[in-house]
Amino acid sequence: MAMENSADMASGFAQRVDAMTLARAQAGDMQAFATLYAAFGRPCFNLAMRILGNRAQAEDLVQEVFLKMFATIRSYRGDAPFGSWLKRMTVNATIDQLRSQRHDADVDAEALQAQQTTDAAQPAAALDAWSLLQRLPARTRAILILHEFEGYTHTELAQMFGQSESYSKSILARALKRLGELVVHAESAPCPHRS
After folding, report:
1. What angle do CA 106, 110, 113 make, to 5 degrees?
2. Radius of gyration for the chain, computed over Cα atoms and rounded to the nearest angstrom
3. Could you tell me the domains of the chain?
4. How far apart are CA 28 and CA 70, in angstroms?
């Protein structure tokens, strides 16, 4: 199908939902829900996977999001495109997941340092983008992805994370600096010793 090509996957949440499918879903039609899942399941999973970094957690989160969508779709009024509404629901669920793993926030700096030391012996894989993102703690990765790739503002991030704008700006600046250091280190480390 055309939905499987990379252009559609890149704009997955931007897909249009026809009014009939939406009306049927709001009336509880299971086939309409299946249609929505077929269209938006992959974009939900991709976003959850990028933020959470864990396949099983991302799969579970998609199920939770679609169950919540099933329960709340009657309240959808069309003020925003359906994909935007579902994307926001997915982002909120990932943030809730991160909050439930609050201990990650307390060890972010220590985790970054420990991971950098461990990764020093693996320069060949160091420039893979996914590997670089995986080296960031979950909340840091979430802020980076939501701001840089998903287009959320610092004001929106502050509201979502229950923090100040300076919190997300600081986390983002440190994440970008760390990623830059990891790239420079990987490019300049032909052997696993530190300079």
Report:
1. 150
2. 19
3. 2-100 (1.10.1740.10), 105-188 (1.10.10)
4. 8
Helical packing angle, 154-161 and 165-188, nearest 10°: 110
Token pair in block for residue 65: 């999001």
- Among 103, 180, 87, smallest CA distance to 137 is for 103
Map tokens 């929505």 to a residue.
36
What is the distance of C-alpha 103 from the center of its chain? 19
CA 155 vs. chain centroid, Å, equals 18
Strands (E), 81-137: none
Residue by residue, DSSP assigns 45-106 as: HHHHHHHH--HHHHHHHHHHHHHHHHHHGGG--SSS-HHHHHHHHHHHHHHHHHHHTTHHHH
Tens place of pLDDT per residue across the chain (195 aa): 333 443 334 368 999 999 999 999 999 999 999 999 999 999 999 999 999 989 999 999 999 999 999 999 999 988 889 999 999 999 999 999 988 876 544 444 444 444 444 444 444 444 577 788 888 888 899 999 999 888 899 999 999 888 999 999 999 999 999 888 888 877 776 555 444
Measured CA to CA, the distance from residue 47 to residue 97 in angstroms comes to: 13
CB-based contact 61:49 (threshold 8 Å): no
pTM for this prediction:
0.72
How long a stretch of residues is the chain?
A: 195
